[in-house]
Design a protein that fits this description.
This is Spore coat protein. The protein is elongated and about 50 Å long. The protein is mainly alpha-helical and 73 residues long. The chain has one domain.
Length: 73
């Protein structure tokens, strides 16, 4: 396994921010929607996006041990 490039780290950070925003938006929708089916769908999407966020975090943690200690030139 190779260390990630700065560009890859930025992409993962952006993806995590996007997933976090989607979690929050779906949670708000699930809390405010009165239609039971739509509420269930939004709650499911909270779970899906939480899984995505966790997978991205796990990827960062796995690569942390091989990341260089100094910035690459």
């Amino acid at each position: 396994m190779q260390a990630m490039t700065a560009k890859e780290l930025e992409y993962i950070a952006d993806s995590m921010s996007n997933e976090d925003l989607l979690i929050k938006q779906c949670a708000v929708a699930a809390a405010t929607i009165t239609n039971a089916q739509l509420q269930q769908a939004c709650s499911h999407m909270v779970s899906v996006h939480t899984q995505h966020y966790s997978m991205l975090m796990n990827t960062l943690q796995q690569h942390q041990s091989i990341a260089p200690n100094q910035p690459q030139a």
